[in-house]
Amino acid sequence: MNVAVVGGQWGDEGKGKIIDVLAERADYIVRYQGGNNAGHTVKTGGEKFVLHLIPTGILRPEKKCVIGNGVVVDPLAFSSEVNMLRSRGVDPAGRLYVSDRAHLLLPFHRELDGLRERLRGEGRKIGTTRRGIGPAYADKASRSGLRLCAILRSDFSRRVEERCREVSRMLQALGGESVNVEKTVAEIVDAAEVLRPFICDTVTLLHDAVRRHERILFEGAQGTLLDLDFGTYPFVTSSNASACGVAAGAGIPPSQVGRVLGVIKGYTTRVGEGPFPTELNDDTGTLLREDGHEYGATTGRPRRCGWFDAVAARYAVMVNGIDLWAVTKLDVLDRLDPIRICVGYEYRGRRLEGFPADSEVLAEVTPIYEEVPGWRVPTRGVGSFDDLPSQTQDYLWRICRLTGVPLGMISLGPERTDTVVLKDPFSEDAK
Ligand code: IMP
Questions:
Q1: Residues forming a β-bridge with 71
Q2: What would the pLDDT profile of 298-341 be if each residue is shown by its tens digit?
Q3: Given this model, what pLDDT does residue 39 score?
Q4: How far is the CA of 39 from the centre of ligand 1 (A)?
Q5: Phi–psi pair at 285, nearest 5 degrees
Q6: 272 lines ligand 1 (CB under 6 A)
Q7: Cα-to-centroid distance, 385 and ligand 1 (Å)
Q8: How far apart are CA 49 and CA 80, in angstroms?
Q9: Superfamily of chain region 3-93+201-421
Q10: By C-alpha distance, which of 282, 259, 245 is closest to 1?
Q11: Among candidate residues 33, 30, 110, the one with its CA nearest the CA of residue 71
C-alpha cells in the first residue's frame, strides 16, 4: 500500500509533521509537485527543521527520498538545503534521488515572478512566494524549459547561457533588469555540480520499488485549494497540488497511488491573495494567528485565519478521493467557545450546491455557520483520542460526518510525539 498525503485547504495544514510521522512506516518519501515555495516544518528532539525542496523524510536516516519529475528545482535552493542538512548532521548522499526529467528553476524565473506581480497591480496580485514557481512551470508548458538531464551534458553551460540571453531580452522589454548572464551561468554551473550526483531516472527507481512492494509516501506541497486546476484560480500555485498530481509528477501509474490522507487544520488559513469565505478579520482571527503561530514558513508573512470550512473540505474530498483525515492544530482552538463550522454558502439569496469555480463568486458568498461548544481546557500533547474532552471529540466527529471521511490521525502540538494515529493509512484495513 502506498499513501499520498495532500493538503485539504490552502496549504500550511501541517503536512510536514504528518509526513514525518508516517515516514517511519515508509521506504520512499516522494515530492511530486511544486518547488521551494513549500515550507515543511518538522520538530524533533527539540530541534526545528524547515525544508522547502527536499522531502521531510530525509530527517530519518534510513529512508530514501525522491524529488519527482513534477517538481521545479532551483539548484541554488537545493544546494543551500543540502548544505544546511549536512551542517546539522543529516547527510542525503546515497538516499536522495532527483528526477532527470524535473525542470530547472533559474534565477530569472524569480525575477519574472516579482515583475509579473508588480505589473498585475493592486487588487490583482496573486501574492506569490516570489520563488519563481509560476514562470518555471510556464517555461515547462511552453516547452522552453531546461530539465535536470541537461546538467549531465557537456554543453550545459552553453544552454543556460542561451536561455539567459533570450529571457534577458524579454525582461528588458517588460521594463525589468537585464540578466547578468555571466554571473547567472557561473552560479548555476556551480550549484548544478552539487545537484549532479543526485540526478537519476526516478521513474525506473520507483517502478522497481512498486514491484518489490516497498511502501511509498507521496508528500504533497501546498493544498487542494491552491491546485492549478481545482483551486481558487487565478489565486493558486502553478502545479497540481492535489492527489491528481501524484501520477504525473512522480511517474507512478494512477492505479499505484494508493490511499489518500487529507490533512486539514481544525480551522482554516490562507497566505497570499484570493477569496476566503470564512476569514475572520477580528479578535478571533488574531487569536488563531497568535496561538497557532500562523506566519509563513517560507516568507514569514502573517497568514489569514478563519473558521473551518466544511464546504471546501467536502470539495477536497471529491477532488482527491480522500480516504482518511489527519486533523492538526486542534489545540489552537482550546480558548474558543463557541466554535463555528461553515456548513454551506449563500450567494445572492440562494444556497450554492458545491464549491464555485469562479473566484469572484466565492469572494461574494456568505458562509452559513453551525455553532458547536468549545472545550476551554488545554489539549496540547494529549496522547489519545479517548483522553480528549468530549466537546473536542464531538467537534472531530462533526467534521467527519459533514465530509463523509473517517478520522485517521490527530495532531495536538508541534512535536512528533504530539500525534495520535487512530488508523494507520498504510494498513490494508484502515478505511
Ligand atoms: P507561488 O506558488 O509562489 O506561485 O504562489 C501562489 C500562491 O500559492 C500564493 O497565494 C502563495 O501564498 C501560495 N503558496 C505557495 N506555496 C505555499 C505553501 O507552501 N503554503 C501555503 N501557501 C502557499
A1: 34
A2: 788 899 999 999 999 999 999 999 999 999 999 999 999 999 99
A3: 86
A4: 10
A5: -60, -40
A6: yes
A7: 32
A8: 14
A9: Adenylosuccinate Synthetase, subunit A, domain 3 (3.90.170.10)
A10: 259
A11: 33
The pLDDT score that the predictor gives to residue 246 is 98
Q: Look at residue 431 in the predicted model and tell me its pLDDT.
A: 65
Grid cell for residue 81: 538545503
- Say yes or no: CB of residue 225 within 6 Å of ligand 1: no
Question: C-alpha grid cell for residue 263?
Answer: 490533512
- CATH architecture assigned to 103-198: Orthogonal Bundle (1.10)
The predicted pLDDT at position 46 comes to 81
- Among 97, 26, 17, residue whose Cα is nearest residue 63: 26
Residue 302 buriedness (CB in 10 A; 0-12 / 13-18 / 19+): middle
DSSP letter assigned to residue 353 = P
Report, as ranges of residue numbers, the positions in the chain whose pLDDT lies below 70.
431
Whether the Cβ atoms of residue 339 and residue 372 lie closer than 8 Å to each other? yes
| Residue 293 a catalytic site member | no
**Ligand 1 pocket residue status of 127, Cβ below 6 Å:** yes
What region does 299 belong to: left with phi over 0, alpha with psi -120 to 50, or beta? alpha
Domain boundaries, the chain: 3-93+201-421, 103-198
Pairing verdict, β 339-347 and 268-270? unpaired
First to last CA, the chain: 13
- The reported pLDDT for the residue numbered 33 is 98
